[in-house]
């Protein structure tokens, strides 16, 4: 269900569309929206599409409604029952109106600084690159959390043969042209979407730029959470799903590269 201000075509398209996938159970969505608006507002006009999995009980749906009414009407609520992060991003991209598209997690804990996020956006707006991807500083992370993340980074880099240091960071901006190519190529399945996206964008010949950011107050999960949840339960499924997506990409790449290859300016 969508609560868009204006569902008809108008001449007032925003410069930037940011999609925020969110679980209904995540608290403090208002602080995340404050952060994004502070990052976007000095750069360009914008819309923020919060796509919520409201099959999970929680406060986010009502919090976003109140935020839109009381704080900023450029924030829109979209409800996608049962959708994961990748499905939420696809849903948002299908409705994006900006000339630059982006996405960021709804969890406050990951956030970079306002000046860094604004600079990332300005790189795409200025034409310096076609996609900019956050590259997370791990200095505040626990050793086990850092190890877990870097293992999955290595697996992703090995399976997809890309050279970006941090493929999984949930903060990226891209041109609308890149976004449409992503919509036409990616499988949009689970965490591997972040890795798959970068592989397709590079294969299409677009310019990708990593941008180092301070990754505040994240990586604080306990050793038990990391080992049991991350490695025992999630790890094998992540590797299998990543391989499955890579096989799909291998079969589709010739046809899709012809369709979406970047045309030099």
Automatic annotation (TrEMBL):
Alphabetic keyword roster: Membrane, Transmembrane, Transmembrane helix
Source organism, top-level taxon: Bacteria
SUPFAM superfamilies, sorted: Nucleotide-diphospho-sugar transferases
Coiled coil feature spans: none
Regions crossing the membrane: 227-245
Gene3D superfamilies, alphabetized: Spore Coat Polysaccharide Biosynthesis Protein SpsA, Chain A
Span of domain Glycosyltransferase 2-like: 17-152
GO biological process: protein N-linked glycosylation
PANTHER family given in the database record: DOLICHYL-PHOSPHATE BETA-GLUCOSYLTRANSFERASE (PTHR10859:SF91), GLYCOSYL TRANSFERASE (PTHR10859)
Name assigned to this protein: Glycosyltransferase involved in cell wall biosynthesis
Species assigned in the record: Plantactinospora soyae
């Amino acid at each position: 269900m969508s609560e868009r201000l204006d569902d008809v075509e108008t001449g007032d398209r925003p410069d930037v569309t940011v999609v925020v996938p969110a679980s209904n159970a995540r608290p403090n969505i208002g602080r995340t929206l404050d952060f994004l608006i502070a990052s976007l507002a000095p750069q360009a006009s914008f819309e923020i599409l919060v796509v919520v999995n409201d099959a999970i009980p929680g406060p986010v749906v009502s919090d976003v409604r109140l935020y839109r009414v009381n704080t900023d009407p450029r924030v829109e609520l979209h409800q996608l029952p049962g959708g994961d992060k990748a499905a939420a991003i696809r849903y948002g991209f299908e409705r994006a109106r900006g000339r630059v598209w982006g996405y960021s997690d709804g969890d406050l804990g990951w956030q970079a600084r306002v000046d860094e996020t604004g600079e990332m956006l300005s790189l795409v707006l200025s034409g310096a690159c076609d996609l900019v991807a956050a590259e997370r500083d791990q200095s505040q992370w626990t050793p086990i959390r850092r190890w877990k993340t870097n293992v999955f980074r290595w697996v992703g880099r090995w399976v997809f043969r890309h050279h970006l240091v941090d493929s999984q960071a949930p903060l990226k901006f891209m041109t609308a042209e890149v976004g449409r190519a992503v919509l036409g190529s990616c499988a949009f399945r689970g965490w591997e979407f972040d890795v798959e996206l970068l592989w397709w964008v590079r294969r299409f010949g677009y310019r990708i730029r990593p941008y180092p950011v301070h990754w505040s107050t994240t990586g604080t999960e306990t050793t038990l959470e990391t080992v049991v949840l991350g490695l025992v339960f999630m790890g094998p499924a992540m590797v299998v799903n990543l391989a499955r997506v890579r096989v799909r990409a291998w079969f589709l790449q010739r046809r899709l590269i012809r369709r979406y290859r970047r045309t030099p300016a």
